Amino acid sequence: MPTLFLAGTLPTVSDSKRVPLVDLPRQHRDLLPELQPVIADLLSSGRFIGGPEVSAFEEAFSTYCEASHTISVNSGTAALQLILWALEVGPGDEVILPAFTFVATAEAVCAIGAQPVLADIDPATLTLDPAATRAAVTPKTRAIIPVHLYGQPAEMEPLLDLARAHQIHLIEDACQAHGARWNGKRVGALGTAGAFSFYPAKNLGAPGDGGAITTNNSDLAQKVRALSNHGRGEGGWYEHSLIGGTYRLNTIPAVFLSANLPHLDPRNERRRRAANIYRTHLKTIEGVEPLFCRENCEPVYHQFVIRCQRREDLRNHLDAAGIDSAIHYPAPLHQMGALKFLGYKEGDFPISERASQEVLSLPMHPYLEDSQIERVVESIHRFFSVPSR
Ligand SMILES: Cc1ncc(COP(=O)(O)O)c(C=O)c1O
Fold this sequence. Notes:
- By secondary structure, this protein is of the alpha/beta class.
- It contains 13 helices and 13 strands.
């Protein structure tokens, strides 16, 4: 049995021995020999925008996501916004989304002038609750945006049924779920369209910001592509059929993403393995509860999240033991300053409110070593061995 100690009494652990939340340098190390000459060639040729490299990535990502089309863009937020824009969702329209997600899901709706309508989440998985979503539908509802939070697909069947019954769009926020499967199918093109983020720390990350839209709808794909590139169509560089903007993914990030894509499945598998080890050990510790994983889902563990009522103390204790952790997210949308104007009040989304007070993300990345997971688990174990004060 390890020696007992009180939270916060451990000596500071040097940076090199810390267990980091993510380890991007380790992930990129093996790809450097392959990437360096290609990027050097692009730098010396001055080809930075578009080109066959971008098309090649889009084609590979479509194949990977089992979608007919991919339109690469410059962020996940832009991806969500462009889908809504192309679907002509705008002022006077309502879009339903979970009260517990990263702010960008709501930002995209606000950016196109529509009204975000929040719905509470399922307490076991923290993804959009289909019953709450159904209750939020009005004649003004144009779309539902379920979020595949932390890499676990939302409960799609009832949400797809609801979208079909009301003839509204289902847009997947797959920004945290590259490669996840629901009922054996990849997320991203289960509804009208899906949005992905390639923010560096995502399961598939770019060297900077990036994103993509996936869809099986050819007309939508064509329109989104035009909007992402100043409304250009087939007519030529100075033929603008629509008012759009600059939302393109550039050439160097596309090359980087293409080199990383073949490694996504093996890396996701390593994340699942790490999650299983965490689950096996954490099961025996009273006081922490890993999120439930539905049987018909293959999650990709963008984050490994536990719930804990003594979260702040546990977090301080982990920090003192040299273990990084994070809170995704410390407030539900309706309690964020930027979204106060929506007019919701405390108590409107109790499950989201409680989740925001209890969630804690533990280190999770493909190169997490068993010994590091053991250190995290052991540290949590020690924390709960000391009676709370
Ligand atoms: C659920 C969710 N939606 C949207 C986004 C926005 O993606 P980006 O940061 O690429 O704009 C993120 C990024 O963290 C996200 O986690």
